Amino acid sequence: MALAIRDVREHDLDAVLALNNAAGRTILALDAGQLRYFYEHADYFRVAEIDGHIAGFLIALREGGGYASTNYQWFGERYAQFVYIDRIVIANAYRRHGLGRIFYCDATSYAEVRAPLLTCEVFLEPRDDKVLLFHGTYGFQEVGQQRMGEEGPQVSLLAKELPSYPYVRETYLERDGLPDVSWLAERPRPTHNNDKRRLAGERRP
């Protein structure tokens, strides 16, 4: 079994959309336009490819964007810098093989050189203790709760401190920026949506 975690490509979007909308009640459904928004704006959007098949994906965004999610906005109102995991989906055929942890390790590697916090939410309605345990054992702690809209589910808002970030900030970001190596690069996005604030190596306050 050959596994690759790579940036999403435009021709992957139909498969990603189908995978998202087959995931069940704990993942909000998307339409093609919403998925296109992530393709054009998400800072982290990677897929797991196994033997040529899309086995899962993870989407994350940094602070300061225009994403309309109430959970993303909750973190934006309270924290100056963070990477927010909007969703992770693993295809049924590939669950219970550790892909979730592989994705979270990869997302952490991306986040820890860019922000002090990795954030996300988990649904409490319906409650899934396996999901709560997964996040707890990965170092996330609850920092709040809210209801998603008047009739939406209650969610637990989670954050994980990234202890490597202060070193990276002081050693690289406040000096000459991140080294020019492939694993630190930003994902390619359509050129008309390039955001120069996001470029790896830029000095940040």
Automatic annotation (TrEMBL):
Q: What parts of the sequence cross the membrane?
A: none
Pfam families in the cross-refs:
Acetyltransf_1 (PF00583)
The Gene Ontology terms for molecular function here are: acyltransferase activity, transferring groups other than amino-acyl groups
Q: Tell me which InterPro entries the record gives.
A: Acyl_CoA_acyltransferase, GNAT_dom
* Biased segments, Basic and acidic residues type: 186-205
N-acetyltransferase domain ranges (all copies) = 3-163
Question: What SUPFAM superfamilies does the database record attribute to this sequence?
Answer: Acyl-CoA N-acyltransferases (Nat)
List every stretch annotated Disordered.
184-205
What superkingdom does the record give?
Bacteria
Task: Please report the name of this protein according to its UniProt entry.
Answer: N-acetyltransferase domain-containing protein
Please give the organism: Dyella marensis
